[in-house]
Structure formats: C-alpha cells, structure tokens
Amino acid sequence: MHPLKKNRPLRRIVLASAVTASGLVMLLALKPHTAPAIAVAPAPAASSSSGADSGTGSGGSTATGTKTVTGDTAQTRWGPVQVKITVKSGKLTDVAVVQSPSDNPRDQEINSYALPKLKSEALAAQSASIDTVSGATYTSDGYRQSLQSALDSAGL
Fold first, then answer.
1. What pLDDT does 125 receive?
2. Which CATH number applies to 58-154?
3. I need a labelling partner for 66 at 20 to 30 A (CA). Which of 3, 5, 93, 133 fits?
4. Domain residue limits, the chain
C-alpha cells in the first residue's frame, strides 16, 4: 500500500507542509532576469554644420547663434540615457535622445510614451527641473541628469 494512503493524516499534513515550504523557498530564490551591465564610453562630441567644437560633450555654433550640445551619458538600472540639446539665442529649442534603454520590448514601450513627455516638459521648463514620468522613473532620472550636464555645458 502507498505510504500516503495509510490512515495517518498527520504524516500527510507534515509532507504537504514540507513540499509547500520547499516550493516557496525555490520560488523566492529566483532572481529576476537583468541584462549584464555593459560599460558604455561617452559618445563623441556632436558638432554643428560649422564643424567647430568647443569641448567635450558640446558642439559648435552656427552664424544664427544655434548651439548643439550633447550631455553626459547617465547610467541607469535599465541602461544608459543620453540627450542632445539645441540652444538658439540662449533658449532651449530642441532635446533629442541619443541613447535610451531599448534591450527589450518593455523598455521600448515605456520609452515610446515617456521620452516625448520628458522632451515637452524640458522645453516648457527651459531647465532640467522636470517631473518624473510615472512608470519610467529610472529613465526620467537619467534623462534629467544628462539634460542638466548638457545645459551646464551650454552655459544655461
């Protein structure tokens, strides 16, 4: 006769509890999948059509007073974030994303709604003092860091 078919309910309870506890321990021991950390060197400085380069992370200016500056790369939990700004007559006129987390479809989904919101807020605020986009906290933090470094390099 099978050991569990005997009329011993205590044995069944102890065995079921042990199996449940073992399963719970194995479940809690699982680690979420994360991509391996990759060291990313800062992107080379972008330059405008005049070809002038005013230093690391920044570009030159054209005859119209337009300046393009690339911010430092901000390393976030999900990957690097880097922006490039365009300044015309001392005013922030454009923010373009050079790098953003895109290793998986979820990153791409988050960035498809977060990055346009961050851009519009940066242009409206004319600074890096912008709100975090809900659901994209790490990307928002990296965006702000890179934006602030670009604004600092541009002298804003």
1. 86
2. 3.90.1010.20
3. 133
4. 58-154
